[in-house]
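Minimal example, chain plus NAP.
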Amino acid sequence: MPRRDHIGGWSQGLEIILTRRALITGITGQDGTYLARHLLAAGYDVYGMVRGQNSPSARCGRQVHPDVRLVNGDLMDQSSLISAVDRVRPDEIYNLGALSYVPTSWRQPNTTAEITGTGVVRMLEAVRIVAGITSSRTPGPSRPRFYQASSSEMFGKVRETPQNELTPFHPRSPYGVAKVFGHYTVQNYRESYGMYAVSGMLFNHESPIRGPEFVTRKVSLGAAAVKLGLRDSLRLGNLMAERDWGFAGDYVRGMSMMLAQDEPDDYVLGTGIAHSVRELVELAFAHVDLDWRDHVVLDEALQRPAEVDLLCADATKAQQRLGWKPTVYFEELVGMMVDSDLRLLSGPQCSEGGVIRELADLW
Ligand code: NAP
Ligand code: GDD
């Protein structure tokens, strides 16, 4: 049953009942895909922003949900964002677009700052300009709701464990620095213009459609590939790093809950349990009855210039105020990902070698 509501701001108070409209940047990514599914199921009209002919994902043939309407826009380009927001007139904007792979941020620090950092200013400016929000701190009738994908990478060299909304930031990568900039920009637009803008400080969340460069997917693909005899080994970097890994489907539900509150605020989402990369590898290989020590090769080149050793969430605020809690934990998540990759690598796509070739390049 579609959820119908009074149009939030764009109709200037007209008593028209319309389906709520969401605009998602980063629609081709993991979270964009899960969030679109979640909002479509809740009855939203969902628009996804794509980089048109320059989108690498479009080139790789990743499919966006057929019910998502696409608009062109690039976080590097202010005019395109104003046009996209003006065209869609969304009630809710989810800014998920980013250069999100941490190692790339050392190789391309300027591009990371532009997309992951300044891109947030551009999106907020697009919303502010199209909604006609001025420097007055009194919000006008037009008050679209803005979600920013902040990250636990902002905590970096952590000052306390577990980390909550008040834990100081100490980013360790150009990506983390750019996310801190975006986070404070959201806070500033909330305080300067009375905008309904929130940041979700999300800990690592994964799924069977996680990008193959991230460690969970690299390991689930690696374990499946070794099991099927497609590869002998898997090269990895730091096995000692610990992360709080949850399931992406749970986290996009949290994003939507944050925008449903009366007042805007920032929230940490995570499971509250940390595991090491070594535990991840052990579990994934054990899932296919293999001993990881026979197949994993340590590669110094995969160590990072500055590492984030341990991330573990204290999501008490989200649990108490939003009623959010995860439904999938580490063991189930890893099993789900390995099983999915066993199916993927046994399927017809792989007989053509596409997936494996793509991975061989990355690994
Ligand atoms: P992802 O799979 O890497 O997706 C990133 C998305 O950003 C892609 O759709 C990509 O589009 C888009 N993008 C890249 N450059 C862009 C540009 N110049 N203009 C517009 N879009 C651009 O990331 P994810 O895992 O879904 O994460 C979503 C967001 O949450 C990101 O901001 C990430 O930093 C943040 N985050 C993720 C996690 C996590 O564990 N997954 C945790 C905390 C925060 P193309 O297809 O065109 O490249
Ligand atoms: N990717 C990768 N590849 N990571 C490895 C490898 C490897 O071969 N070997 C060890 N690791 C370690 C990394 O050094 C890091 O400590 C940990 O595995 C997790 O790496 P990623 O999966 O690449 O994720 P991340 O924690 O750096 O970043 C992800 O989570 C952030 C939230 O904390 C990304 O999704 C970010 O966009 C997100 O903000």
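The pocket of NAP (ligand 1) is lined by residues 25-32, 51, 55-57, 74-76, 96-100, 115, 149, 151, 202, 204-205, 211 (CB under 6 Å). The longest strand covers residues 145-151.
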